[in-house]
Structures are given as structure tokens and as C-alpha cells.
Amino acid sequence: MIELDKKGLNLENYKGIVYFKKKVQISSELKENVNKNRKDFLKLLKEKKPIYSVNTGVGKLADRIIPHQKIRELQVNILRSHAAGWGEPAPAEVVRGAMLLRVNCLLKGLSGVSFELIDKMVEFLNKDVIPFVPLKGSVGASGDLAPLSFIGLAIIGEGYIMDKGDVLPAHLVLKRKGITPYILKEKEGIALINGTQFSLSLLLHSFYEFDRLFKLSLISSILSFVALDGNLEPFNPIIGKVRNSPEQLLISKIFRKVLKGYRKKGKRKNVQDPYTLRCIPQVFGAVLEVRNFIEKIISSEINAVTDNPIIKGMRAISGGNFHAQRLSFACDMMANLITTLGNFSERRVFQLMGVESSVVPRFLAKEEGLSSGYMLVQVLSAALASQNKSFCFPNSADSIPTSLNQEDFVSMSANSALRLFEMNNNLKGILITELLSAIRAISMVEIKLPPFISSLFKILEHDFKIVKEDHFIYEDIRKIETKIDLLIQKIDEVF
Predict the structure, then answer these.
(1) Confidence of residue 448 (pLDDT cuts 50, 70, 90)
(2) Total count of domains within the chain
(3) Using CB atoms within 10 A of its CB, is residue 402 exposed (0-12), middle (13-18) or buried (19+)?
(4) One domain, residues 434 and 381
(5) How many C-beta atoms surround the C-beta of residue 313 within 10 A?
(6) Are 221 and 151 contained in the same domain?
(7) Within this chain, do residues 276 and 366 fall inside the same structural domain, yes or no?
(8) Are 426 and 346 in contact (CB under 8 A)?
């Protein structure tokens, strides 16, 4: 059980609730704050002043006043009209994440909602009820309106719910699970959807996967470094110190630790190694530095209030916290990090194809000509790396005005986050090609492996045979994929 209190969410608690399905409970202090805020809002409503989206229309229709007897109907209409989406269902973890983040936002006591709404959302989380949410349809402007509307509809017993892989009418699933559909009160429809939580959940989903792949990229580069007879001198701590980069120093430290016992054989003719070996601390260090900056943005946004209007005391304050520009920037930065790691890895795969035949055989072929070796392994890595480059267009630089130009500058945060799924998957494929190429190269040349490298090799070789003759390589790729978790656990010991 994880209690949400005034400290807010952190990445560890978020992961526990969203991915490991730990139960949620709300502190009494937060419940009191929400109830007080609701009372203030109801007093404000009695003054019969225009409050955006409560007794007025939304967007360009905010110039229309809604009769008091229809303001609850308005909240339901907002959800129904805004649930316009397209594409495959969002992963369950993304939907759970969006619900949790929205709960955490509403718990700040600035949204004017009743605690009963929050309690119903917590019930959905604790009973693992997953609303059907299409992946596409948000421009990240007045919040993630479309995807969050699908969540809102499920809460009131409309729309659809994912149930054991099927998309079923919400009211049927809720009835079977003994959950009473929620009846919306004033302001609660707009409060469910006016926020950045879907974009943020998409980003978090890719952020966790990126962290895994960053560690995997360290492993693949370590193995390539050994296979290509790399020079350890560039990992001298003096180089990192004069660069004023703690992250670069950390990478150098990790490499010196895992390569303890490694001895260069001196096969390379040039005095200096290619950049993909010599500049490992600089590139990985820079990636880590930007990754940490993205985490700072995420940690801040997790506990942000993104409503409009905000209810503070007896005031309804209209603003633009729903605008997800900071998330769009963060996603664009992550896209560049993913692409950089893929480019960096692909160039080492290229080196492993025998650019310098004195170091490794050309294409790692057992008998050149008769055997093509890993020629197409490098082609595969090039194809994946190139596609990721094409995904790197900065979505934060794009904007299509919506709502008859009321929303005249939008962030495109959801689009910026969505492409990260496929980019991470491409990066994983590239890193697997490097792992395959590196272990084959090591098996073809005489190298005494230091202890840590030897332990990695044992993980990779377990239930997997390195075949030097031409064979069906795709099966090797799938086999190596199954070993990723074990490899990451190993690097965690020194990271």
C-alpha cells in the first residue's frame, strides 16, 4: 500500500503503483484539503459569476453562458464530445499512469472537485480497471483532452474498458466488477481532462525503457571495446576532470572498473582509436547529463497542478498550466538521446565488420566469399538507426491551431511522446546487433577476458551457441533479446 500525502508522488512510488499495482490510499490531510476546496468552489458558484467551463461553454464557446440547471449536464457533454481518438489502445501502464497522475493533481486541492470523484478514480486503480484509450488524438494544448475524456467516460460508465484483451462497454464491465458508475458534479468533467497527464504518462513509459536501454548500450559498447582491441587511456579520470563533467567521469569510472584485468593486444595500426571507442565517456556522459535533466522535468510535472480554471479560495483563476510545452521539449530531447545511442552503436557494429581487418575478420565471416558472415546484421542496424533519425523532427516546433484559433499555439506533446515507443524498440534492435557482432568477434580472435566481461559472456552464451558458419541469424537476434534483463541486472552491480 502506498499512501499519497502532501509530499506528492516520486518516480519510485509512481512505478510501484503503475507497474507493480501496489494499492493506493489517500492521507486524511489531503482529503480535508480537497473537501475545503470543494466548499469554497460551491460558495463561489452561488455568486453566479461566469466561471470558465463551469457555467460557460469551453474553448471558443466560452462566450456562451450555461443555465444553472444544466451545468452538471455540461460536464457529461464535455466528456462525450471530447472523446475523439484514433489508433491502437494505449498500453495498460500508460492508462494507469495517466489516472494516477490525474488523481495526484486533483489531490492538490485546487481543482474544485469533490473527494468522491478522486475516491472513484482510486477504486479504478486499486481494482486495476483499465479504460480503453486510443493512442492518438491529443495536441497537448488545453490538456490531453481526447485521451483523458476516454478515461472520464469509463468512470461514469460510458465508453469502453479493456478487459483481458477485449474492448468491452464500460457499463458491463463495471457491473460485473461491482463498481458503481460515478455521477459527475459541477466542474468535474473539465477537471478530469484539463491536464498534461496522458502526455506525461507516455513520456514516463518511454523514460523507464530508455533507462534500461542506456544500461544495455553500456554493455554492448564494453563488449565491442574488448573485441576491437580498444585503448584504455581515454578513460583516464584526468580527461573527465578537465572537461568539468561529473557524468563523463562516472562513465570512465564504470569502464575502468568493468575492464579491470583487460590488456590491449596492439592490433590496431593507428595511434588513436575511432571515436566510437575513444569518445565513449564523452558521448555517454552527455547522454546521461541530458537524461538527468529530463528526469528533473518529469519529477516536477508529476506534482504539478495543470487545471484551468484553478480554484484558490473564493477565486477562479484562468490560466494555461494545461499547456504541455515543457513535456514536448523533454520528449524531443529524449528522441535525440535515443537516436544518438543508436547511431553510436551502429558505428561500432560497422567497425566490427572488419574496417580494420588486422583487428577482426571482414564481416566476421569464417570463410570470406563462401560465407557472408554478419554483413546483413550491420545492414539491419543501419536501417533501424536511419529510421530513428527520421523520427527526430522536433514535434515541439510544430503547431496547428485548434478551436477556431482560441488554441492558436499547441505543444504537440502527445505526438512527441508517442514516437518514443518505436524509437526505443529500434534502439533495442540496434543494440542486439552490436551484442551479436561483439560476442562473435570475441569468439573469433584470441582475447583473454577480464572477470566482468567473462560474466557477461556466460550470460550471453547460456543456452545459446555462437555459430560461425552462415545460418538463420534472425533466430540469434530473438535469442539474445531474451537475455536483456539478465545483462541489465549485471551492469546494475557497478552502475
Answers:
(1) confident
(2) 2
(3) middle
(4) yes
(5) 12
(6) no
(7) yes
(8) no
CB of 330 closer than 8 Å to CB of 298: yes
3-class secondary structure, 169: strand
Q: Which of 14, 52, 182, 262 is catalytic?
A: 52
CA dihedral 69, 74, 77, 82 (to 10 degrees): 180
Which of 168, 195, 222 is the last residue before a domain boundary?
195
Indicate the pLDDT class of residue 375, thresholds 50, 70 and 90.
very high
Q: Which residue has the cell 484514433?
A: 86
Report d(CA 461, CA 469) in Å as an integer: 17
- Strands 130-131 and 160-163 come out as antiparallel
Is residue 275 annotated as a catalytic residue, yes or no?
no
**pLDDT tens for residues 241-287?**
999 999 999 999 999 999 999 998 888 777 789 999 999 999 999 99
Q: Which helix (H) or strand (E) holds 130?
A: strand 130-131
Contact 215, 156 (CB under 8 A): no
Q: Which amino acid is at 61?
A: L
Asked, for residue 308, whether it belongs to a domain, the answer is: no
Single pTM value for the model: 0.96
d(CA 330, CA 463): 40
Confidence of residue 494 (pLDDT cuts 50, 70, 90): confident
